[in-house]
Amino acid sequence: MSAEQVARWVAAHPLSPAHVDCATAVMLKILDGKCRMRPTEKRVMELLYDAVRDCPGALLGGAEHALIAEARGSLDEAMTLRVYERRVLAETTISRPVMKGFKAMLREQGLLDPRHDQESAEP
User: Fold this and answer.
1) Contact by Cβ (8 Å): 52, 20
2) Measured between alpha carbons, how far is 85 from 82 in angstroms, rounded to an integer?
3) Which of 9, 7, 13, 42 is nearest to 28 (CA)?
């Protein structure tokens, strides 16, 4: 899936501020190496994050986006630890039902393949 396809999907399926938070948390999880999604789905989630990072979140925002931008530029061991700490905080801030609903919505609305629900046990 391309950035243009994801941008079109976002235009047709605007995310709520809570779902923007979920996309941000998943991006942190990808960066710290704890995301269990398939590589193709991780790429889609990276593209989704890029498409919505300027949208308002309900609980997460500028600090997380700045950290993600910094980590994408230089992901050494110290940065990975910073990302991990922020990811754990983000995941405790977002309720499990909200995150599960977000992932289910992505599958139901066709952004992620519904046959590959690899993160069903993840927060």
Assistant:
1) yes
2) 5
3) 42
Q: What is the pLDDT of residue 114?
A: 78
Separation between Cα atoms, residue 28 and residue 81, nearest integer Å: 11
- The string of DSSP codes covering 1-61 is --HHHHHHHHHHSPPPHHHHHHHHHHHHHHHTT---S-HHHHHHHHHHHHHHTTSPPSS--
- Cβ proximity of 23 and 103 under 8 Å: no
- Flag residues of the chain having pLDDT under 50: 118-123
| pTM, entire model | 0.89
Work out the angle at residue 84's Cα, subtended by the Cα atoms of residues 22 and 95, and round it to the nearest 5 degrees. Answer: 35
Of 68, 56, 76, 60, whose CA–CA distance to 29 is shortest? Answer: 68
Judge whether 33 and 77 are in contact, CB under 8 Å.
no
